[in-house]
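Encode chain A's predicted structure.
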Amino acid sequence: MADIAYGVKFEYSSDSGSSYTALGEITDISPPSVSKDVIETTNHGSSGVKTYIGGLVDYGEVSITVNYDPDGTENDAIRDLAVLAHETTGNKLYKISYNDGTINDYTDSSTETFAGIVTGFEPQAPMDGQLSATFTIKVTGTVTYSA
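Encoded structure for chain A:
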């Protein structure tokens, strides 16, 4: 059964997940994806057919687009990480909560929690449109899913 995407919440933590701050006015989000390296194991005894094993898993990147206010402070923490050289994950965590029930009621929501490095901040200023910004976060390590 399909769920509506409306109401997805993105939060970040600077204290290893003890508390989270919601990123405001999200208009679009691309959650972590999964890809896996493939390692060829073909050898002279493989009967002329290539063989493989699965390698390392990569959870890709997360992108979040928000309505952007250059004078506001809602997005400063993540924007500042985009310009921080040699960023490490430290005690930073990110969490995506899916609205599984009533809109804006996250008591029974499914979540994805992960560490990551902020790799991009792209503001957009269309002539006849809303100021927006897209943040890109490279997932590092595993993603923890909970329902």
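The two ends are 15 Å apart (CA to CA).
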